[in-house]
């Protein structure tokens, strides 16, 4: 109960928590801070998960998931407000990992992203300081989606790796 894995409901009994991610977030956040983790550490871990997620998503995607992925990228492409594009960017990355069906990857990405929430917004703003980066970012997302819906796992992994590397180089140029 202390770690959040079990919920006790008076008069009802003990139950497994509905949100394992929430119970893991606190100790991981503490570990991150105690070990003086950096946002770049989180970005590197996120990159590892997202590259593999893209590969698996390309292998496992269903027709309905293909439609949803296309809907997200189409909406992102036509969005005019940066705040809406940012939400769709986040949704796209989460959805790709969701397509894998791998509960551990989904949970860990969710935890990392929760820890990075402020950094993600700051990173996107930093990327978009250069007007050319907006087009590169959109093209990068479109390339990832095309590789996944084409069921090309090798290309999906490569395009996601290039995308994450592009973000890392812009945000952490050293």
Describe it.
The protein has helices at residues 20-34, 39-60, 63-78, 82-100, 103-127, 131-149, 153-171; strands at 6-9, 13-16. A two-stranded antiparallel sheet has the order 1-2. α1 (20-34) crosses α5, α2 (39-60) packs across α5 and α6 packs antiparallel against α7 (153-171). Helix content is 78%, strand content 5%. The chain is built from seven helices and two strands. It is mainly alpha-helical and 174 residues long. The N and C termini lie far apart (43 Å).
How many strand elements? 2
Strand content: under 5%
Q: Which percent bin holds the helix content? A: over 70%
Quickly count the helices.
7
Radius of gyration: 18 Å
Order of strands across the main sheet: 1-2
Q: For the terminal residues, how far apart are their CA atoms?
A: 43 Å
The helix/strand class is mainly alpha
| Most strands sheet | 2 strands, antiparallel
Mean pLDDT: 85
Give the tags.
174 residues, mainly alpha, 7 helices, globular
Give the arrangement of secondary structure elements.
Elements: E1 6-9, E2 13-16, H1 20-34, H2 39-60, H3 63-78, H4 82-100, H5 103-127, H6 131-149, H7 153-171
Quick recap:
This protein has 174 residues and is mainly alpha-helical. 78% of the residues lie in helices and 5% in strands. Strand 1 and strand 2 form a beta hairpin.
């Amino acid at each position: 109960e202390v770690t959040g894995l079990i919920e006790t409901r008076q008069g009802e009994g003990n139950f497994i928590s509905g949100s394992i991610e929430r119970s893991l977030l606190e100790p991981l956040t503490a570990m991150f801070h105690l070990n003086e983790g950096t946002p770049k550490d989180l970005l590197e871990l996120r990159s590892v998960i997202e590259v593999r997620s893209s590969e698996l998503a390309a292998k496992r995607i269903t027709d309905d998931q293909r439609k949803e992925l296309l809907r997200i990228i189409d909406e992102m492409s036509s969005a005019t407000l940066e705040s809406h594009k940012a939400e769709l960017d986040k949704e796209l990355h989460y959805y790709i990992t969701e397509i894998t069906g791998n509960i551990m990857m989904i949970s860990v990405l969710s935890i990392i992203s929760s820890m990075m929430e402020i950094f993600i917004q700051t990173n996107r703003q930093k990327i978009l300081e250069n007007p050319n980066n907006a087009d590169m970012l959109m093209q990068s997302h479109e390339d990832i989606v095309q590789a996944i819906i084409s069921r090309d796992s090798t290309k999906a992994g490569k395009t996601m790796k290039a995308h994450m590397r592009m973000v890392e180089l812009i945000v952490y140029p050293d």
